[in-house]
Amino acid sequence: MNTETYDDIFSAALSLSPSSKVMLAEHLLKSLDDDKQEEIEKIWSEEAEKRVEQIEQGEIKTISKDEVFQQLNLKRK
């Protein structure tokens, strides 16, 4: 693709509404490699299921978002 074509496409993309930009970005990312995306989603799904099981079995303790932000603020100081 030549620079002029790229610039035209980029300019057109910038003129889109925010929601259309999001849709375009999602489609472009998805087009990179659907197989890898499916694999990533599978891995995240398995990880989420594992964490739910750990919580239900009492293996790990959850904390509130307020505690998370409090701990982050302490680390920044």
Automatic annotation (TrEMBL):
Pfam family, one: Unstab_antitox
InterPro entries in UniProt: CHP02574_addiction_mod (IPR013406)
Protein name: Addiction module component, TIGR02574 family
Organism name: Crocosphaera watsonii WH 8502
Lineage, opening ranks: Bacteria, Bacillati, Cyanobacteriota, Cyanophyceae, Oscillatoriophycideae
